[in-house]
Design brief:
By secondary structure, the chain is mainly beta. The protein has no helices and 24 strands. The radius of gyration is 22 Å and the shape is elongated.
Length: about 300
Amino acid sequence: MAGNPNYSKVSLQLNCDGAVDSTTFTDVGPTGRTVTTYTGAKVIADYEFGRALSLDGFGYLEAAASSDFNFGSGDFAIECFAYFIGTHPPTSYYKGLVVCDDIGVSRGWLLLLDGDTTNKLEFSFLAGATSYSVVAGSVPALNTWYHIAVTRSSTNLRMFLNGVLQSTTDVGTTALNDTSAIPLEVGSLRISSAANAPTRPVCRLTGIRITKGAAVYTSAFTPPALPLDGQQYLITGTVEDATGTPAARKVIAVIEATDKVVHTTTSDGTTGAYRIESNASTAHTVTAYPAGGEALPALVLRGVVPIES
């Protein structure tokens, strides 16, 4: 695992990979900011990615206002995986996905599903009263996962869907309105200083990441694997055979909260040492397997907490 070269610039990263039914969403970005859960948003099991944030049209997430969500005229990237459920739009409202905007009070930027007119994914930002936007080329299918990315690189504002460029807008050197005093909403729009119920989508989200200071994507790309790379954590140890001699053996690490296999490796045949990198800081189960014909059971270590690499 190479990690994320832009990790130090990440303003928020939600991998949404906690225990099923958990209402805790941990920011695994460098800031580790607090994310508040409202009205039933929770982690659910997902056949594609293992875990995801479930939004039922009532729940949403919120992070406190921060200059980290204020992009000015600089580069940025906003991305997430989204899976829309049921009939959309269920009402004629815009549906907020990742938003730092307070309609009627202080305008900022919005990644949303345009349930008012086109049913397409759209990103827009305000500079004064002038709006700049990029729009996806088609309506997203229901019950299908999409990777959505909006990036700014110098003068170019772009939208990608599953790594495919959808549209580009030349925004020049325009600076976005200052959003430092506006809370960030995931799964809702904010109107008159309050999250607005009719603007909450019925969908699943995961792999939510905001990067300030790097565009991340500027041309067609393969969507990232989940969980998104971030700070790397390290598990190390040694394996010995039945005689106490260092040995080469298969070693597997699994994140206990999700049962996700992090990595499979083979310990060094001379030193017995192994090294496994993980994106998760929580407890792992590490299993070392005996060689064929070796009269030893597999060695299972539970509750192994990695260190920062």
